[in-house]
Amino acid sequence: MNHAESPIGNKIKMVLVACTLILFAAGARAATTLENMQAAYNGESNAHARYLAFAGKADSEGYGQVASLFRAAARAEEIHAGNHAAVIRKMGATPAAKIEAPVVKSTRENLEAAIKGETYERDHMYPDFLSQARKDHNLAAIKSLNFAKTAEAEHAKLYSAALTQLDHLKGSQAGTYFVCPKCGFTTQELSFAKCPSCFTPKEKFEKIS
Amino acid sequence: MMHLPPIPAWESLHPLVIHFPIVLLLLSPLFLLIGAALSPAKGLPYRYAGLLILLLGTVSLFVAAATGEAAGELAERGGGVDAVLTAHENLASETRLLFVGLSVILLGMIALPRILHRQETRLSSTFMPLAYLVFYSVGILYLVNTAHAGGRLVHEFGVHAEMPASDGATSATATEAQEPAESRTD
After folding, report:
1. DSSP letter string, A186-198
2. Does any CB of chain A come closer than 8 Å to the CB of residue B159?
């Protein structure tokens, strides 16, 4: 009689498989928010590099206002990356980003690409990451992801407005944008006393042009 | 066996502390009113109690506002939440300022006669506190409007603080609670 087919052997196998699955599931759940934070950190770091490249292109094509917008958004992405990195370190890991060479096209195409990226982050990536972070009760991750999601929504609006008015913005001078140093909220007008996202006083906002 | 619930993080303290300023700051004028109705000597302990409750309420207002800002950073934005959250935050700041002023005035009204060794009269024990309560009603107006905006956030929009995980039970998240109340517009 084969030992592997004995009832006791089968039970032991089943218990081992079950234990492995439970351990794997527990490990996977714990790693998910960390993996999400790493993905978000990578995304924000690349967005920062990409928008700076887009700003250079907008300047060379005579869209000064759009170049300023890209620079402001780049600063916001840098702040998000910094916030995400702090959360990753708090979770005991090291933030890692693979910076890819930005694909720079015309300013119109760059704006379209930026809108696509921001819309994806606002509607899919960050809501999914937030959902997981809330399940894990990771308050630091929730805060960092929430800040980024709110700012990306503003970026999408600003990029869409710039794309709509692009023909009128040809030959424009550099514009002024304000970026919250804590959460990266980006705006053209400081029409509030405190940041709508993180309540930082408007006096602390960074002026980007 | 019954245990103590988990200790919340700073960002989750808001629901725990928010009722202190509401109760204390609504209770203080009742003591002042009783103090005003009594003779200067008999009313004095009530004025002291009113002052003490007001000071405690004002301090708790600072804690409530600080924990509220921390909780607000975790709340998902979009749709009607933004406007109500901003209104709630602005009203809280104004209410805090008003009650600091009201605390200073009442402290002066009660402490000055003692510092200057002046005898309490009906003017200082009844009429001035009654006039003070008229100004106090402005503070109450701000307080209840701040509370109302906070109530709208929780009960109309489903925004609430992140609570620590408890054994064997997962609490509803802000996202989950927000979905039935209003569709996501972002």
Report:
1. EES---SSB-TTT
2. no
